[in-house]
Design brief:
The chain is α/β, with parallel strands linked by helices. It is 43% helix and 18% strand. The protein binds 4'-phosphopantetheine (PNS).
């Protein structure tokens, strides 16, 4: 059975992430979404909240499951057997960082390969960080977020922005 792993911080999950997860789920028998820590980012949602949001937004994909790990991606994958990491690539600017991560993960776990899917055209400019920024200014993010989590994400991010200003 061929298994894909879609890693990320998913803070929050975007329509761009869902596009990559859905496409991985069509290519592989099983897809496991792993919520990991990105220590370079300050998260707005707890790991449990991010797992719950991913569960809601991928419930329609029967071969997709969601887990959380506090460990390195390479270590987490080593415990899962022969898996392939699948990541979306938006623009050339993503490439350098993702290339470095893929090589580091391969060094840490030589069995681990990374496969890149080109992000869909309409998702090229979407990122969790852009959504957080736009939302904090009261902007409309309804075309960027999955509808199942839109309201709760907007409410949290606006509240967070208000707290920062007081
Ligand atoms: O969605 P992101 O924030 O771009 O995802 C990055 C993520 C979480 C996949 C990356 O930071 C990660 O793999 N974190 C776990 C720790 C790790 O394995 N780091 C890479 C080797 S140093």
């Amino acid at each position: 059975m061929k298994t894909a792993v879609c890693p990320g911080s998913f803070d929050p999950v975007t329509l761009g992430h869902i596009d990559v997860i859905e496409r991985a789920s069509r290519i592989f028998d099983r897809t496991v979404v792993i919520v990991l820590q990105n220590r370079g980012k300050k998260c707005s949602f707890t790991p449990e909240e991010r797992v719950t949001m991913l569960g809601k937004t991928t419930a329609w994909l029967p071969n997709v499951s969601v887990v959380h790990s506090d460990r390195l991606l390479a270590e987490t994958c080593a415990g899962m057997g022969g898996v392939v990491v699948v990541k979306g690539l938006r623009a050339v600017s993503d490439f350098e960082h993702e290339f470095q991560m893929a090589l580091m993960n391969k060094k840490l776990n030589p069995e681990l390969d990374t496969l890149f899917l080109t992000a869909g055209e309409r998702f090229q400019y979407i990122s969790s960080s852009v959504i957080k920024e736009l939302c904090s200014y009261g902007g409309d993010v309804s075309e960027l977020l999955p509808p199942e989590i839109h309201d709760e994400v907007v409410e949290r991010l606006r509240r967070e922005a208000r707290c920062r200003m007081t």
